[in-house]
Amino acid sequence: MPAQKPSIYIARVAEYNDGRAKHLDDYLAGEEPLEIRVNGSPFGLTFRTPGNDIELALGLLFSEGAISDRKEIIGIAEIPRDGEPSANGLEVTLEPTVQFEKERYVRGFTAGSACGVCGKRAIDDLRTRGLSAPESNSRFDPEILCSLPDKLREAQANFSRTGGLHAAALFDSKGKLLVLREDIGRHNAVDKVVGWSLQHDKLPLARQILLVSGRGGFEIVQKALAAGAPLLASVSAPSSLAVQLAREFDLTLIGFLRGRRFVVYSGERRVLMEPDAAENQEDQA
């Protein structure tokens, strides 16, 4: 078996600071390609921070609808390179009864802003996949939500060293951290959390909170819906297509979760907020 690729590298750099220069060691977030094959056919190539690669592959397969249960997988092995196992490739073997449409998944997982027509087509594709709204009975305390970004940052061991990694974390309704994963790509971090949940038979993510660093884009919302999370929160802004998708499928979507403030873009009823008194008076006027 090959050595695991490091998730952090050290580079000798020159720093200029307030008129003075010095040399020092800097920590860099690892970035390596990961090729994923399914039953011998290409599934995709993604650039990720090494670590929890099996979770990443499982989460990606599940989020894309290629699998619906971990029992559909017979095995996962590293893809050989020059006769030796490679740390940058995984071969996933599915049960013979699983229908894998290989033509559908030959893509590179490149991310970009979608135009209106592409966005409509993407949402139609999700309807075709049969994704449904998450459970509707969960309710979440705003005070608990406001406490989560600090817990996220405190648990980000590699971010504190590199400053260059995104994180995705799963919390229960009381604010207890269940799992956190870091990656140079926010989509990969979410897939690792989903893959962990799949491995531990915790899907769907009923009554749980998925929190991501950075913004909440369309693909993040898609992955949250696939995993059955009732609430997705991000510390930055969502995109217009993300909000459209969240409203279509009744996902509670929160952005700008910082300090004691956040914005609810969809599914407000799941958040136990007391309306402002002045707002009540204005509504009654």
Throw out a few tags for this protein.
single chain, Cytidine Deaminase, domain 2, 4-stranded mixed beta sheet, 32% strand, Ubiquitin-like (UB roll), 285 residues
SSE arrangement:
Blueprint: E1 8-17, E2 20-29, E3 32-38, E4 41-48, H1 53-63, E5 73-81, E6 84-94, H2 102-105, H3 116-129, H4 142-155, H5 157-162, E7 166-172, E8 177-183, H6 186-199, E9 208-212, H7 218-227, E10 231-234, H8 240-248, E11 252-258, E12 261-266, H9 277-284
Parallel strand pairs: 3-6, 9-10, 10-11
Antiparallel strand pairs: 1-2, 3-4, 5-6, 7-8, 7-9, 11-12
Helix pairs in contact: 1-6, 6-7, 7-8
Query: Count of helices?
Result: 9
Second-tier CATH architecture of the largest domain: 3-Layer(aba) Sandwich
Give the SSE string.
EEEEHEEHHHHEEHEHEHEEH
- Under CATH at level 1, the class of the largest domain stands as Alpha Beta
Mean pLDDT level: 87
Largest sheet: 6 strands, mixed
The CATH topology name of the largest domain reads Cytidine Deaminase, domain 2
* Sequence stretches where pLDDT stays below 50 over 5 or more residues: 108-118
Task: Identify the strand order in the major beta sheet.
Answer: 8-7-9-10-11-12
Radius of gyration: 20 Å
Write down the domain tally.
Answer: 2
Structural class computed from helices and strand pairing: alpha/beta
Number of strands: 12
What proportion of the residues form beta strands (DSSP E)? 25-35%
| Head-to-tail CA distance between termini | 72 Å
Described by the principal axes of the CA atoms, the overall outline is flat
The CATH H-level homologous superfamily of the largest domain? Cytidine Deaminase, domain 2
Helix percent reads 25-40%
